[in-house]
Specification:
The protein is of the alpha+beta class. About 40% of the residues lie in helices and about 15% in strands. It has a four-stranded antiparallel sheet, sandwiched between helices. The relative contact order is 0.22.
């Protein structure tokens, strides 16, 4: 599959089977992430591989965020249902370089590029994935749950599994409608 085909055919796939993902595949996904471009080679990404009962770490963090630091049985039950949607979740965080010469926004951009690389690798492996984020992801309690630094921030959770259905289709606005050509 060419890179052009991967870019155009990759889709977010939320419905996956509970089959386990081979470690070799997980390592290929992580390897793809570390090859993202990053200014000054700061490598600001941090990955957390959650599978099996390890997904409970995310469930507990989600429940804590939902309860503003308090975990109830109801919020934990709800969070467990969310993390059980896929057999594998890779949580991806940014740990910005503490250097005045480094632009923090570029550190975020590098990690977002790493996530895209990972999603393309997942697609090439014939797996399905969806990148989930949202307010709970960015919450201070989420960072604490994963022992991130004060500047560190969780940027997304990639839910991965064998797709239940592979005929995902999508449309995009033609690039011409989103492009301004400047020649002079």
């Amino acid at each position: 599959m060419s890179i052009s085909e991967s870019i155009r055919n990759r889709r977010s796939i939320g419905k996956v089977k509970q089959d386990s993902i081979p470690r070799e595949s997980i390592e290929r996904i992580l390897e793809a992430g570390i090859w993202a471009p990053n200014h000054r080679l700061t490598e600001p990404w941090k990955f957390f591989v959650l599978e099996g009962n390890g997904r409970n770490k995310l469930a507990e963090a989600l429940a804590s965020v939902a309860g503003n630091g308090e975990v109830t049985e109801e919020s934990l039950s709800s969070a467990r249902k969310k993390v059980e949607r896929a057999p594998l979740i890779i949580a991806v965080a940014v740990e910005p370089e503490d250097n005045p010469k480094i632009i923090e926004l570029e550190e975020y951009g590098a990690v977002f590029a790493a996530i895209q690389n990972m999603l393309l690798e997942i697609h090439e492996l014939g797996l399905g994935a969806v990148w989930r984020s949202g307010e709970p992801c960015y919450h201070e309690l989420m960072g604490k749950a994963f022992d991130l630094s004060e500047k560190g921030k969780m940027l997304g959770f990639i839910y991965i599994g064998v797709p239940e259905n592979n005929d995902q289709q999508s449309k995009r606005t033609p690039f011409a409608e989103k492009t301004v050509w400047i020649s002079e």
